[in-house]
Amino acid sequence: MDDSQRFYLTVTAAGRLVMQGWWGSETTARRKFSSWVGEYGSMPGARITLTDEQQGSVLTSWPGED
Fold it and tell me: Which are the contacts of 7, defined by CB distance < 8 A and separation ≥ 6?
């Protein structure tokens, strides 16, 4: 995997992929995450997840875990 695709952002709703994107910069990816929460967060069943593909870990998700 090249570093330009390290940070992977997804939006799903009702279990279906709605939007996805990859960024090399964590700062940019987190800014996009916040933007996507505003844009897509009101969709029924929306889930937005930012993953570090290199580490194999979820950095943040919306809505948060209960």
Answer: 22, 23, 24, 25, 26, 28, 29, 50, 51, 52, 53, 59
d(CA 42, CA 12): 12
Predicted TM-score (pTM) of the model is 0.90
Write the pLDDT tens digit of every residue in 1-35.
Answer: 568 899 999 999 988 999 999 999 999 999 999 99
* Cβ atoms 53, 6 nearer than 8 A: yes
What's the chain's length in residues?
A: 66
> Can you read off the two tokens belonging to residue 19?
């939007």
- Answer whether 3's CB lies under 8 Å from 41's CB: no
